[in-house]
Amino acid sequence: SESxxxxxxxxxxxxxxxxxxxxxxxxxxxxxxxxxxxxxxKLFVFDKASQSWVERGRGLLRLNDMASTDDGTLQxxxxxxxxxxxxxxxxxxxxxxxxxxxxxxxxxxxxxxxxEDQGVKVFLISASSxxxxxxxxxxxxxxxxxxxxxxxxxxxxxxxxxxxxxxxNEDDSDEDVLAPSGATGGGAGDExxxxxxxxx
Length: 200
Description:
Layout (H helix, E strand, L loop, with lengths): L3 H15 L15 E14 L4 E16 L6 E9 L5 E6 L6 E5 L2 E7 L6 E7 L2 H29 L7 H14 L4 H17 L1
């Protein structure tokens, strides 16, 4: 009694109901962090054996800030996942001795922890010139802050100089400076001139 088109429509309607998928909540581990910057880019890693750059993947690179629990200082990290499969190809914290420099207008060279062998490697991030500039400025600012904090901690750990030592050194140096410019040397010379003049 049904036409072919009607039976086909009924069949697709019946099967469509069965194919509904439930929404799955994705947990990335970045929920407690605030995202500062995200850019589309390519990631390369330097291979020491072949002395060349090897492409690790392309995708979304994110710079996240998280407040440290112990003293409230800001800690940042770079996270990058590939497009499509969302495989993690970069996950490194920023630290004070981390090296960053602009290799070109559209690329940044950094030292970072490698997720595969847990060692420090050299990476190259290649993106548009605008994104590269923003990323470099954000990284540079955070690394400078980390370095100044490390310097402050080192100064706090160093013993304070003795209060009597510094003034005595300054007094000695002042005496050394004043001694040659005193009137004794000049006076001797004047007397000598006067004696020669009187003798002639």
